[in-house]
Amino acid sequence: MIDFGGIDALQLDVLVADDNELTRVPKSVASQTTVRQLNFGRNRIKRISPSMFAAWTRLQHLYLHQNRLAELPASLGQLTALVSLNLANNALTDLPEQLGELKALRALQVSENRLTRLTPAITRCTALTSLALACNRLTFLPQPLPQLNFCNLWANPTPLPFRDGNCVALLDSHLFALTATLAMILDSSLSVCIGLQDLELPALVTLEIIDAAFPNAIPMHKKWSLITAVKHFH
Questions:
Q1: Which CATH architecture best describes the domain 7-179?
Q2: How far apart are CA 58 and CA 32, in angstroms?
Q3: What does the domain layout of the chain look like in residue ranges?
Q4: Could you tell me which residues are beta bridge partners of residue 38?
Q5: Which of 2, 109, 133, 136 has its CA 20 to 30 A from that of 159?
Q6: CA 87, CA 225: separation in Å to the nearest integer?
Q7: Interhelix angle for 186-196 vs 220-232, to 10°?
Q8: Parallel/antiparallel/unpaired status of strands 14-16 and 84-86
Q9: Residues 171-187: pLDDT tens digits?
Q10: Residue 116 above 70 pLDDT?
């Protein structure tokens, strides 16, 4: 086990604390405002304090793989210098909208989690070239994605049964063409429509909200049918 006593008196460039059975990131690590690489992989961390991300403004490489994270704080968006982020093998069901603020991010590893959707904010990560999403619960992807060199969708319930690592060549020509059935977003979009009912918004406004919340190739008339059905049976 690493002894973090006195670490706040140092200014480190690299901090490696993987495979140490840690249940949390020590508070003293927040003092490492100059750190560029942090490795807390292969521990038992369940939560990251929002103040941690807010402190690591120069961080370029962050490894949090093989922990027990179920969510990430919105302050993730403050890691604007981040180039690579490894969150593989956790318990994440979603990624925060603030992911879209990571304009320098090139590599994102989120394989072996519990993602049922990929936040549309990822389309704003314009520097992203490598995206690993294997072994999740994704049925469709937001579009347009950045110009990827590598994308792994193996073992997801997508319309195509991906078996190889890199599926970039199939994304535009096949996957998006097949993500056109309303069933892929039915549960989530239905919840949004019902939640908006109390606002008594015009159907067209609700349609714009649903279309922005779930970027995909589903024809607008199918989404329109869903919205009018919800309003009719209010």
A1: Alpha-Beta Horseshoe (3.80)
A2: 10
A3: 7-179, 183-232
A4: 15, 62
A5: 109
A6: 38
A7: 50
A8: unpaired
A9: 766 666 556 666 666 77
A10: yes
